[in-house]
Design brief:
By secondary structure, the protein is an alpha/beta fold. The chain has 4 helices and 5 strands. The protein has a 5-stranded mixed β-sheet. The longest helix has 17 residues.
């Protein structure tokens, strides 16, 4: 009995696996890296942005919810005394035409949402009127912002 207790922790068979020397196979690592890259590319935000360049105000704000891709872009007046230019889906419109488009969207689309990209030099009154028109049509509206640490020359363009 004593002899059996001494052999309790010993192995009966020697291991046949030996440590591998040299470089590991990189194929699996490259596959994983491409899958991660694909994941980040597909999970990113796909907000459609118009081609009109505006300089957004820099404000610290929480992340904006995922919204449908309907964009209203407001550029500042070309000269003093003129009105701001309003673009809806890259088409120049007036405030009344924009209001009519909002009501049409609410009737035809399931859950429309409006993203307002207004230049920081645009008067707040213009942005407030656009938001009031969207609210009247019962469409949620969001204002696009640039993070406060972004470069000054960065523009919201596509």
């Amino acid at each position: 009995m004593l002899r059996q207790e001494k052999n309790w922790g010993r192995r009966r068979y020697a291991p046949t696996l030996k440590p591998k020397a040299g470089w590991p196979e990189l194929t699996a690592l490259i596959d994983v890296l491409f899958l991660i890259l694909l994941f980040f590319a597909l999970s990113g935000s796909f907000v459609r942005v118009s081609g009109i360049g505006v300089e957004l105000p820099r404000i610290q704000a929480p992340n904006i919810a995922d919204v449908e891709r309907l964009v209203v872009t407001v550029s500042p007046p070309d000269a003093p005394g003129k009105t701001c230019q309003i673009f809806f889906q890259d088409k120049l419109v007036t405030l009344e035409m924009l209001r009519q488009n909002f009501f049409r969207l609410n009737d035809s689309s399931g859950r429309p949402s409006i993203i307002i990209c207004a230049d920081r030099r645009v008067p707040f009154e213009t942005v407030a009127r656009i938001m009031a028109s969207a609210e009247e049509a019962k469409i949620p509206s969001f204002i696009a912002l640039a993070p406060p640490d972004a470069k000054r020359e960065t523009r919201f363009e596509q």
